[in-house]
Amino acid sequence: MQKRIFTIESNEAVARDTFRVVLRTDGPVAIRSGQFVDIAIPGFYLRRPISVSDTLPDGVVLYYKVVGEGTAVMARMVPGDTLELLCGGGFGEAGATSVAATECQQDAKHRSNGVADRNEVQVAFPLHRGMSRQRQGVWGTDGIRGLGHGFHPEKCREAALLIGGGLGAAPLYLLARELLAAGRKVTAVLGFNRADEICLADAYRAIGVPVHIATLDGSAGVKGFVTDAIAAARPAFDRFYTCGPLPMMKAVCTMLDAPGEASMEERMGCGAGFCYGCTLQTKSGPRRVCADGPVFDKEEILW
Amino acid sequence: MVKDLSVSLCGLTLKNPVVPASGTFGFGLELADTLDLNVLGGISLKGTTREARFGNPTPRIAECTAGMINSVGLQNPGIEALVSDKAPALRRIYGGCIIANISGYSVGEYAFNCERADACAAIDILEVNVSCPNVHGGGMAFGTDPQSAAAVTRAVRAVTHKPVFIKLSPNVTDIVSIARACEDAGADGLTLINTVLGMRIDIKKRKPVIANKMGGFSGPAVFPLALRMVYQVAHACRIPVMGCGGVARAEDVLEMMMAGATAVQVGAENLRNPAACPEIIEALPALMERLGIDRLQDIIGIVE
Description:
The complex is a heterodimer. Chain A is an alpha/beta fold. Chain A has helices spanning 69-75, 96-99, 101-109, 126-131, 169-181, 201-206, 226-233, 246-255; strands at 2-15, 18-24, 36-40, 48-56, 59-65, 82-89, 144-145, 159-165, 185-192, 211-215, 222-223, 239-243, 260-263, 279-282, 285-288, 295-297.
């Protein structure tokens, strides 16, 4: 985990209440589909977790909806403004403390001696060091990763169906790119309330993914839910992936027989697995949406 | 001059007074790949009950001005997992003070859990939580009345030789009378404050934001309240106090210590900044230099 400063390259309305922001930083980005970043918004206490819609060599593309005061502030930010993102990866990830374990054990023996030699902790200080601005040029080998566990494109054999509701279309876009890169066929079914909320449909089409639209009011595509659009389009697939409102994902996961994965949403505290604020009861016990998810196999979820 | 950040707490030496507060740092293990835990003076582990608990329904988190409400509701894997798995695993990678935070639904359960924790060599201090606002029939029910707080203290005192800290609730009329009752019943120290019972309403949905309606409010907004209570209790009792509540900066640590805290816990700030504790610790020497402080131990309770 690491905190990184990103600079806004663009921040534009792309649909009703919906913004697309491009953020650049000074290091390599290696985020997988379904993972998220946790954004500190000036003036607000908690971070905003937002799924990554696309990656650039040194940046991310995010979509967000203005639903409250925090996202309203974000919508008013302009190119050149900076945001601090909590990301995965970073200096010494995979064993920061265990790298120093030998020293710790020695330290444990000498605890009563008081202040420890500060040099012993210099071997690993990932988040701390990653966040220090003057040290931003220092990098681990694997760059900036996303938070949480994302989708599994490798589990798709031939053809995937991506089912997005509203902004759920955003993280599935990065998944579509990963699937295409691995030679899989991809079809997208995207549901929105109305035509002026449609986003990302052209982006999918631009990379060669056929898109089927459903709107609740019938102002575009099939009138009704994504399940209606799936029934109308009858796409061939061996695995599906979904992200969107809970009732939509429930309908999709109970209707479709194929194996699937769903990206769950919950109000988060830390966004990184240690406050237990976003716990979900699953078939294998309590799981943290932020750290064990947000993507779960559909069979895991107690729909 | 090299600054001495160490503090002495019930015979234990903490390399510095900064301790992540219970519930805001998991069992430490969750952050082992992110931080060097060994910079921390101590770690207070997630509150633990006899049986594993799922906790409260979600949403469990609500944002507030300069703070947040949580209603996690003591989700935890149970005391056996703490003593046989979590605490020993943390001890293998962490040399500082490990504080087990113990909850319960009856005096007997507190005593049972503390007896189990007493047998765990990895645990240095027992922090007995009589102040969780998020569970019914337990937690805070024991910490809002001097007699029941004393009853819990006596029961756990009888089953352990480890230092016992009682974690107090601010949701009381007179925290000093409860603190004194715990001291008289044999507590070795006091941790205060736990969260302040709070609430938010979603005005679009016309419903509470928190599924459990109310939850524990914490964050910088409660710092003056917490500081005041630490000051009152530290001056009314002879046992050491771990100050907790809204601490977000090195300056806050010094304020808490000047008010009488021997160690200082950092809670909600960890949730918005997982590096909060290492950052605070790193900032302390320069701040001490600016203020002419050589040893942190010297400033404990200097405000009359």
